[in-house]
Every structure is written in structure tokens, then in C-alpha cells.
Amino acid sequence: MKPLLQALKGNILSPPPVWFMRQAGRYLPEYREVRSRAGSFLDLCKTPELAEKVTLQPVHRFGMDGAILFSDILVVAEALGQKLWFEEGTGPRLEALDSADDLNRLTTRHFHEHLHPVYQTLERLQESVPATVTRIGFAGAPWTVASYMIEGGSSRDFLKSRLWAYRDPNSFARLIELLVDVTSDYLVHQVSAGAEAVQLFDSWAGIWPEAEFRRWSLEPCRRIIERVHESYPEVPVIYFPRGAGVLYEACAVESGAQALSLDSSVPLRWARDVLQPHVTLQGNLDPACLVAGGRAMESAAESLLRMLDEGPFIFNLGHGIDKTTPPEHVTELMEIIRGKSAQAPT
Ligand code: 1CP
């Protein structure tokens, strides 16, 4: 079995398998080259030959154990009929949802047709991903996707979305329910097209108090994971409730996920003692260490390996690769992970 899948099944590997969130992207000159040919970022996501190519770029250059589908979490909003575009420098923009009435503008009628290029990319990857490398599909969690749909783009405080949830929980629940449904379906289709594991990105989970975290982040994700497992009981799900703090424990015990992706703020000793008995852990090197390189990167990577690689573990970052990361630092980090762990007793 492929190393990443073995770790997701709870096996302890030395060296641990490794991949990096957002491993394809602007920090790679070969990505910038393809991106400039594609037109817009969304065109790149929707052109299977090019999306396949950029998915493979980091795998070929660095030899990661996972190849994550090249797409974006926000294509789901677009597939529901919401207008989406990406502005250079400012990131994603959407025609914002302002009220319960706006939910009526959303439709599932063309959902899978719209996402067909994503499925085609995964089908192509079945032929081209190296034999030992795991194909990872993904989706945004309902809360994180809803926040972009309501804010109309990135936000610092998500106040509009939070106020909607507090003032009109029924219509907010309608949006979350819709996203639970389509996201479950989307992931099942990704697996049918060739994804061997899937990751749910709840990048903004950490903004909520406990009760709302459970209601709007954990419970919707638990239901999606359950739905994926109803169709594909063997397919591992990696859950990334970024910023969940001590609530990572509830995620480990209650979500049904096989692995938790840890953000960089999660203390390693606590993660080892409290979370790792329940699930495979993935993470959590600070992406800034990878930009910095040198001693800072080396010592952080070594303590991560020392602390977590006696249980089921996948080396990753605590969040996506920064676009200013020097590619040579990624090469060095791969050497640290593979070299150092290879010498450790098994
Ligand atoms: O051309 C470009 O460089 C556009 C930048 C870019 C890229 C490379 C965006 C816009 N998305 C992506 C790809 C992407 N997004 C992947 C590809 C696979 C890989 O990991 O290599 C994935 C998994 C995502 C997921 C994603 N998109 C998340 C969840 C993970 C996270 O980083 O928290 C989120 C929040 C988004 C929204 C989004 N899309 C793009 C940007 C710049 C953002 C973040 C905006 C913000 O911070 O609010």
C-alpha cells in the first residue's frame, strides 16, 4: 500500500509520509509559467490538462507522497450559481449573499456539470501520478465556504457571516445544510473519479465559540464524513479544523475522520498524548519556517519528527505554503524529513 494511505490507516512509518498544503502554486517558477498561459486562475482550475500538470509539478520536483488535486474550495460556490472571480493581489471575490432571500439564487441544477473538469483532472491523474503517490481530493468545509459566500471574499473578522448566524440561525442553517449536501456529493464524485483520500479544509473554524463551533463547523463536517463513508467506507478523510485549539480533541473523537491536520499553534506534546491515540496526525510546521529555512526550519522540523513520529503521522505544514517560499528550502526540508527519520530506530 502507498505510504500516505498506510499512515492514514493508522500505521507508523519511518520516515513518515510527507506532502504540503498548497504545494502547487506561485512559489514555483514552473507554476507561474503554466499559469500565465492559462489566462485566469479559474481557467487553470477548469482546464484538466493544465490542472493535472500543476498538480504534478511539486511531486516531480520534490518527491512528495501526496498529490493534491489542483483546484480551489470556492468552485463549489460557483457551481451553485454564485458569481466568482479572482483579482490579482486581492484574492477571491464573489457576488455576496446578503439575506435569506439571496439563498433562492443558489441552485444545484448544474452542480456536477460545472465541476466536471475537476473530475476529469482526477481521472487524468490516475494515469500520471507516480505509483507510490496518493491522489488527494478536497473540499472546503461548509462554514469556511459559507463565509466567503456571505462576505463576498476574504475577511478579517467574518462579522457579516457571524451576525447572520446569530440573528437568523434558521436561514444560516439552510445554507450550511445545502453545503453539507453538495459537498458530500462532490467528495463522493471525486473518489469515483480517482481520489484515494480526501481533505476537508475548515480554514476559519477557529473563529467560533464552543457551541457555534460544534454547530457550524464540527457537526456539518461530521455529517459529510459520514456521507463519504456511506459510499466509500475505506476512503480516509483528513479534517483540518484550523484554529480549533482544545476543541481539536472533540474533532478527534467525534468527527469520524481518520486524520486531523493540525495548525501550527497546536502544542506537540498535547497532540501526541491526547489526539494521536484516536487519529493519524498531520502537520504542523509553521509555513514561515519554510520561508526562513536554515536553523529555524531544521530545529522545528526535528522537534516535530521527534514528538510525533512514534504514532501515526504525516509530515505537513500548519497551513498553506507561502508564495515567497524559496523552492530550495522545500528540497532541504524533504532531506531533513527523509534523512533524519531514516536513521531513527523503527
Ligand atoms: O494563481 C494563483 O496563485 C492563485 C492563488 C491560489 C492557488 C494556487 C488560490 C486562490 N487557490 C489556489 C489553489 C488551492 N486552494 C489549492 C490547490 C492545491 C494545493 O494545495 O496545492 C487548495 C487545496 C486550495 C484551498 C483553499 N482556497 C483554501 C483552504 C486552505 C487554506 O489555505 O486555508 C482557502 C481558504 C481558499 C480560498 C483562496 N483561494 C485562493 C486564495 C488566495 C485563497 C485564500 C484567500 C484568503 O486568505 O481568504
From TrEMBL:
GO MF annotation: an example: uroporphyrinogen decarboxylase activity
Catalytic activity: uroporphyrinogen III + 4 H(+) = coproporphyrinogen III + 4 CO2
Pathway(s) served: Porphyrin-containing compound metabolism; protoporphyrin-IX biosynthesis; coproporphyrinogen-III from 5-aminolevulinate: step 4/4
Pfam families: URO-D
Binding-site residues, substrate: R22, Q23, A24, G25, R26, D72, Y148, S203, H319
EC numbers for this chain: 4.1.1.37
Primary location recorded for the protein, binned into one broad class: cytoplasm
UniProt keyword annotation of Iron present: no
Gene3D superfamilies in UniProt: 3.20.20.210
Record has Heme as a keyword: no
Domain Uroporphyrinogen decarboxylase (URO-D): 17-26, 136-152
InterPro entries tied to this protein: UROD/MetE-like_sf (IPR038071), Uroporphyrinogen_deCO2ase_HemE (IPR006361), Uroporphyrinogen_deCOase (IPR000257)
SUPFAM superfamilies linked: UROD/MetE-like
Spans through the membrane: none
Site (Transition state stabilizer): D72
Keywords: Cytoplasm, Decarboxylase, Lyase, Porphyrin biosynthesis
Protein family membership: Belongs to the uroporphyrinogen decarboxylase family.
Subunit structure: Homodimer.
Function: Catalyzes the decarboxylation of four acetate groups of uroporphyrinogen-III to yield coproporphyrinogen-III.
NCBIfam families named among the record's database cross-references: hemE
UniProt protein name: Uroporphyrinogen decarboxylase
Species annotation: Fodinicurvata halophila
